[in-house]
Amino acid sequence: MAPPTVLPAADRHLLERFSYGITPSLADEVRSAGSARAWFDRQLRGEVAEDGLVAAIPTWFPGLNNPPPTAALLAGGGARSAYQSDTEVIARTLARRLLSKRQVYERMVDWASNLLYVPAVSGRPFPWRSDFDENVIRPRALGSYRALLQAATVHPAMVVYLNGDQNARGAVNENHARELLELHTVGRRAYRESDVKQLTRLLTGFTIDDRTTLYTCGYDPARHQTGTVRILGFTHRNADRDGRAAVRAFLDYAALHPATARRVATRLCQRFVADEPDPALVRHVAAAYLAARSDLPSTLRALVRHPAFAASAGGLTRLPGDDVVRSARALGLRPLGAGTGSLVHRLVSYAEDMGQVSYRWPAPDGWPERSRTYLGPARMLRGWQAHYELTTVSSASGQAAVAPEPFTQLPDRWPVTLRALVEQQTVLLLGRHASARLVDAVADVLGLRPGHLFTGPGQVDQRVYRLVRGTVLNDPSGVRR
Fold first, then answer.
1. Counting Cβ atoms within 10 Å, is residue 50 exposed (0-12), middle (13-18) or buried (19+)?
2. Is residue 407 over pLDDT 80?
3. I need a surface site. Which of 198, 231, 376, 382 has the fewest CB within 10 A?
4. Is the same domain home to 161 and 243?
5. Sign of the dihedral through C-alpha 365, 366, 369, 374
6. By C-alpha distance, which of 297, 292, 301 is closest to 45?
7. 377 to 354, 383, 391, 475, 476: CA distances (angstroms)
8. In the chain, how many domains are there?
């Protein structure tokens, strides 16, 4: 192949933060757009067409289309467990991140899912968990946070996960109200216990029937506790037996509360800028959020324009689940299905082995946003093993995937030195130049000198090919983004 070229540092930085890994095709998209900023704006506007393979991903998981009564019946009879359904939700998510051209959108789907968090760890939410992704998070991930909050708060997966169905007039359960304030809106320091109690009253009435075969969700006005509520400066007479209009009014208010703006801004800055973001940056992003009435694309544009974003290059750690997807993208792997032993299910297993896979955090606060949380010896060792194993995936490996033929990934002009081969592979797989340390590491693995001359592609046999590519992916600097 023709020697790939390296994008400017500023462009690479933006792509590292807002994609699941730089690939030659992604670099071409940026060049076609004129710059990474122009590419970013197109992504935010939704001006990106997906190919047919991405559209086909949901068809690989037909069981996720089962209505809740069917899902529960199959799980109860042992034909299709809740764990299988939840694992397929995760596998479908990783397949989309791997294949999608809408990389900023997939990044924001992940961010929103981790803030408005419902785990995929079986339990009561599982019959509704797939629908929560498909009909709450994904349609609104590049819309307004207000719309996200409105839809997520009353969805049955969230209601049942936070025990909202156990909250009724005369028998209140505070869990849903507390997490709505602490995790989804204003944060722990901005509310009082009286706010929790008042919001708990407002949220009475939502119902889930998962004790019969019906598995219905709804609202029972007879369970709603009426009476004026005062929450965080919000006041509502709450006089109607059906309190849902009052709930919507409060959620509109809460979404645009200054404390919610700070919390959303902090989470965005932690995900895309720094583990400990500059308070001035957080204030800037929160102000943009409020000015745009919680519009997330406008908020992201303000984040990227701030000098702190450019200054943060290389300061974050790639999450283990992201590392798995990045490696598969770098190697040009394209899954074709999701059967037993398929690539997409292997990706889930690798992420679990490395200690972090989307939706498997067991608590309602979502996975920790501080990226340094995920730096540890076990993560690194298991990641290195996964990288080497992914280089063995081929179109004939029985993993429902296609991989580029090796000859298409090698230089088109020979002879080349080992040093030049490592440079070419580093640009191809990581989107940047090879360091002298990486060249030496590959030479040590192969037992060759950096100046060793390969006279033709035939000398790069299967062993050399895989060791070079695996070692490049294992470069410790690749964990930084």
1. middle
2. yes
3. 376
4. yes
5. positive
6. 297
7. 10, 10, 22, 14, 12
8. 4
Same domain? For 217 and 189 the reply is yes
Shared-domain flag, residues 164 and 191: yes
The position carrying tokens 């990486």 is: 438
Question: Which pTM value belongs to this model?
Answer: 0.97
Tokens of 185: 């809106």
DSSP H/E element including 310: helix 307-310
Residue 423 corresponds to which amino acid?
E
Query: pLDDT value at position 271?
Result: 98
* CA gyration radius, the chain: 24
Which residue shows structure tokens 């001006």? 47
Question: How many CB atoms within 10 Å of residue 63?
Answer: 14
Strand partners of residue 217: 208
What is the pLDDT averaged over residues 99-112? Answer: 98
470, 46 contact by CB (below 8 A): no
AA letter at 438? L
Please state, in angstroms and rounded to a whole number, the distance separating the CA atoms of residues 166 and 399.
Answer: 44
Would residue 4 count as lying in a domain?
A: no
Do 229 and 101 have their domain in common?
yes
Whether 227 and 107 share a structural domain: yes
335 neighbors 313 (Cβ within 8 angstroms): no
Residue 108 lies in a domain: yes
Query: Is residue 1 a part of any domain in this protein?
Result: no
CB 157 within 8 A of CB 131: yes
Exposed/middle/buried for residue 173 (C-beta within 10 Å: 0-12, 13-18, 19+): middle
In a domain, 154, yes or no: yes
- Which of 57, 90, 94 shows the shortest CA–CA distance to 359? 90
Same domain, 336 and 390: yes
Residue 165 structure tokens: 């169905």
166's tokens: 């156990």
- Host domain of residue 428: 407-479
Amino acid at 466: R
Average per-residue pLDDT in the chain?
96
pLDDT tens digits for range 328-381 = 999 999 999 999 899 999 999 999 999 999 999 999 999 999 999 999 999 999
Q: What amino acid occupies position 261? A: A
pLDDT at 107: 98
22-54: per-residue pLDDT in tens?
Answer: 999 999 999 999 999 999 999 999 999 998 999
Q: Which residue has the tokens 């969230």?
A: 158
216 and 175 together in one domain: yes
